[in-house]
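Quarterly update from the structural biology core.
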Amino acid sequence: MKAREVFLLILIIVAGILFTHFQLGKIHWRLNDWGIFTSEEFFFEETRDINPPLPVLLEVQNRHGEVNIQGTENETVKVTLQKIIWRRNKDEAAEVAQELNMEIKKESDRIIVSTNRYDFERRNFETDFLIQVPKSMKITVHNSYGKVVVSDTGSSFIDNRRGKIFVSNITGSLTVNNSFDDVRVENISETCSIKNRYGQVDVKDVGGTVDVDLRTGDILLENMNQGVTVSGSNNSVRGEKLNCPLDIESSFRRIALYDVGPVKIQGRQSPIEVKGSKGAVEIRNRFAKIEVEGIEGNLFIEGKSLSVLGSRIIAENITIDSSNEDIELREFSGKTDIKIAHGQAIISPSPLTHAIDVEASYSDIRFMWPPGEKYPFQGSVKNGEIKWMLANPPGSTKENGLTVIKAFSELSNRPPINLSTSYGTIWIEE
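Predicted structure, tokenized:
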């Protein structure tokens, strides 16, 4: 056999042995050692109580392990350290467990809980903390490579770069920093700030303002009352029952908002849906579809190549400016200004309460006239035609390719309708 064939055969045999040991639970990939070693897993535990008087803050410093902090009605702090150790046998693991201990430092303003992890050269172990604290106690956690759970405590700060974070029932504010995993937050009485790079962020029931900064992932927001800011790129955003101002920035992925307050969205190729807004809606986007429905406030939409579908809008001002796609508005009221190029505008006001101006180029305009009503009307087309499908034909002129028709000009006390386009057709029909 050639040397290369011998090497491949040995590699296959070693791989088979490693796979068998892995299936038996005797091989573990330890991120803290950046290597694979054959071992068994052993568990050890120690518990300590910290009695009153207690400072207001508990700080946990951990690495490569989980942290679980639970608020209770008790006045003491109870700390349990679970040691998960990988060694060839129990005796070796027990030697490590005897030397691996929690460290508790009680200062005037805080209790610091940690371990003597860095006393070991070979750190093939994890340290998990289970901690009970009084409900009013504030919390700070510095962790990595493990899940962090905090519930029923005071204001909390959590930094856990590589591990899931679950936080609930916080009386006070919350700050969370993460990088590569999911964050779930619920029932925070005051402000909430979350920074993450990649993962899912769920935020529910927050009494104060919410600030989410996520680079890539999915964001779910529900039941806020004081204001929400979302920044980042390549995020999907879904929000429900957000009775507060929203300021959202994202790219490429869907933004869907239901039953919300005033909305400001800066998108880039992001499909956007807003249904049920009590307040102004302002959207800047491009190359995407926008749907708005049930808006009680001003509407502003601007961007290239936006397909716009709007219905049931009650506003003082409606402004839409786009191109290359269709704009359709139905069941709306308010002063309306539309600019469109290379698309079709379909306009059906109900009721017609303010002036409507549509300025188009290389586009058709289809206007649905309110049945039985009369409004001052002017339509003009350059190199196109106007099709008047109503009774009482209007007066018209045509000169140098420009066709102009006027109707009901004497009704100066009623809101006017002005439609203009080029290289297209204007349809007036009931």
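The helical segments are 3-23, 90-99.
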